[in-house]
Amino acid sequence: MNLLVVGMSHRTAGVPVLERLAMNGGEVQAALAELVAQPYVDEAVVLSTCNRVEVYAAVTAFHGGLADIGGVLARRAGLPVGDLASQMYVHYEVDAVRHAFRVAAGLDSMVVGEAQILGQLRDAYGVAGEQAAAGRMLHELMQQALRVGKRVHAETEIDRAGQSVVSAALAYGQGATGPIEHRPALVVGAGAMGALSLATLRRAGAGPLFVTNRSHARAERLAELHGATAVPFAELPSLLERVDVVVTATASPEPVLDAPLVAGAGRSLLVIDLALPRDVAPGVGELPGVTLVDIELLSESLSTTADAEGRAAEDIVAAEVETFLTWLRGADVAPTVAALRARADEVVEAELRRLAQRCPEMGDEVRSEVAHSIHRIVQRLLHQPTVRVRQLAAAPGGEAYAQALRELFDLQIPSEINPAAAGEVHP
After folding, report:
1. Catalytic site residue 359?
2. What CATH number did the domain enclosing 104 receive?
3. Which of 149, 105, 143 is nearest to 124 (CA)?
4. What pLDDT, in 10s, does the model give residues 180-191?
5. The domain containing residue 382 runs over which residues?
6. How far are the Cα atoms of 196, 253, 320, 330 from residue 316, in angstroms, in the given order?
7. Residues placed in the known binding site for NADP(+)
8. CA-CA distance, 315 to 20, in Å (whole number)?
9. Catalytic member of 1, 6, 23, 50
10. Where is the Tetrapyrrole biosynthesis glutamyl-tRNA reductase dimerisation domain (predicted)?
11. pLDDT tens digit string along 10-67?
């Protein structure tokens, strides 16, 4: 089994293409089902955020897996594979592990060190688990990536410069419109990004705060948590007449703010669009008095130059990648060792049955002692080779030793392994 990552982000693709690929919860579930139905894809996790769409997969062959994943993404975007290929990145095996760990640590984010990606990755992994799309390989990769992300944030100060895309967008917007302290603000959307937006606005001193959402109950729950006022979505036009700052973060496939609606507010507005697909229709940013900050603008303006904390984080990632590769090599050889021991047990049992047929006069006590002795001899003979092959497999190129065992003893390794039975899934 091989690890493969195929995706697009703000670094490689334009927002229009990312918008076509962006998936909400139901769409992620459908994509997972389509992915694991492909010939070369055994496991999959789909990560879809405001500035990236990625597939983490365990595949049986590199080229076949790449073609399968590229085909699924192209169909979901409604574009030819060739149109996506130039904007995709592909990471394989060790590079796939490194990429997963860097993403979890916030090193590949638009705002380097932002912590929200950790929660988004956890959610993506959770959905894959619920859909039975993640197996032993991706369970281990995701669990370790989440642990590495937490470690980086605990042991470095990489997130001190900017906590999130929200804070970066607000900082950029205030550069054009002035401070937002004591200015009324509205958040459209009651998901995780909406909650983060309210918290960030409150820390910045904005207020009073309002939140609206198509599900008013969700808006009320969020408002209660952040000291805001929940307003029915139908009152959005009148809300726009009362606020100076609007942050949109919905999962709507269509814009929720268009030029006529915003122009009808009749006031200057700082509009921050954090959604993908975009919540704000073309033309809104051209209205008099409107300052529009969206993902596309942020991706062009934010610097990702590594500082000392970034280098420290990269060092942690590098060390953790080596640790994971050691596990991966050991995991690759474990089924071979298990198959070798099973083959030995089969041979011993067959010989004991043969002995019982040839010497029926043997009593149960003698037969039991003979069986115990033979099993001990075989286990002692196998102990040193199996311990040694695990040690050798942990080194670069160690997979050749497991392959040699399979060839020498004609071992058949099951293509699928139950993660729970193998003891590889952690709670």
Report:
1. no
2. 3.30.460.30
3. 143
4. 999 999 999 988
5. 333-422
6. 27, 38, 6, 21
7. 189-194
8. 35
9. 50
10. 312-411
11. 888 877 888 888 888 889 999 999 999 999 999 999 999 878 899 999 999 999 999 9
